[in-house]
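Sequence design from tokenized structure. All designs in this work follow the same two-part layout: the structure record, then the generated sequence. An example of the structure record is given first.
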């Protein structure tokens, strides 16, 4: 589980290590992930079709949101630091608080809303002395978090009727087609997109195959073995992995002050505490049903 979280935490670092524009990075990511996942599903004979046309349109819509999430995420990192980009994603919790009651038809949770406000305070504390380009990075990061909340809630709804590998396959294909259309519109879909360094190419393979396709499929099996509670708590440690990796690989400790780490600590504690509360509530509900 922690190996998978390490890889997810490393995706933020790749935004700095890969010397390509954020749009191009995501274009390669969804192409490689779709190809690898499609090959795996074909060999294992996983279902790859969605018969309901309405569901297909929903998958396309969510696929676009996933793509926008990744593009804005890497844009935020490239404008500032990997630490800031991953920290902005912590605000996903606040958005899920109001999205889940609307989409999943569950009661509004005031405790989640209050914890989300604390996260917003943490972001404000971190950004109180930002430079103009860092505010732009913050804006992209917060948009990325909103997109992350949207596709997480919508995917939870879609997973009630469609196998999760099939959902991911369709969304990766949608992302590839969507970005390709954007590149065509910009007049940039040419052989120049394939000009890159060897290190960029290898990092893209790592990002698409291991950090996306492999990590997704393995996580499904891990949830079956360890349970959702352990997995959810562990995943919320992703910002810690990213910040530690950013310190050792990118030397970002020279760019960030003590206020950043104080705010980051507050945000991470709230995110982990929220995951603990959610799963405690689920256990209480299961006991009542039994």
């Amino acid at each position: 589980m922690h190996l998978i979280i390490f890889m997810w935490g490393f995706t933020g670092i790749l935004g700095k290590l890969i010397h390509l524009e954020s749009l191009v990075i995501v274009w390669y990511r969804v192409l490689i992930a779709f190809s690898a996942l499609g090959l795996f599903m074909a060999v294992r004979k996983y279902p790859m079709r969605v018969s309901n046309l309405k569901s297909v349109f929903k998958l396309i819509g969510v696929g676009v949101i996933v793509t926008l999430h990744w593009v804005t995420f890497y844009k935020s990192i490239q404008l500032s630091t990997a630490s800031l980009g991953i920290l902005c994603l912590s605000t996903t919790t606040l958005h899920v608080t109001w999205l889940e009651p609307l989409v999943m038809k569950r009661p509004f949770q005031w405790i989640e809303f209050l914890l989300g406000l604390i996260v917003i305070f943490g972001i404000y504390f971190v950004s109180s002395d930002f430079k103009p380009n860092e505010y732009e990075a913050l804006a992209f990061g917060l948009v990325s978090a909103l997109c992350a909340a949207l596709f997480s809630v919508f995917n939870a709804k879609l997973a009630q009727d469609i196998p999760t590998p099939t959902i991911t396959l369709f969304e990766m294909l949608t992302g590839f087609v969507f970005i390709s259309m954007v590149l065509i519109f910009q007049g940039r879909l040419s052989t120049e997109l394939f000009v890159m360094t060897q290190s960029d190419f290898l990092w893209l393979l790592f990002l698409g195959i291991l950090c996306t396709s492999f990590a997704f499929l393995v996580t499904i099996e891990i949830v079956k073995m360890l349970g959702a509670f352990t997995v959810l708590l562990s995943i919320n440690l992703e910002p810690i992995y990213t910040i530690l990796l950013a310190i050792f690989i990118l030397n970002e400790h020279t760019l960030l002050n003590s206020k950043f780490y104080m705010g980051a600590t507050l945000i991470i504690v709230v995110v982990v505490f929220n995951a603990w509360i959610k799963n405690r509530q689920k256990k209480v509900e299961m006991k009542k049903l039994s």
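The chain has one domain: 2-289. We note this feature because it recurs in several other targets discussed in the main text.
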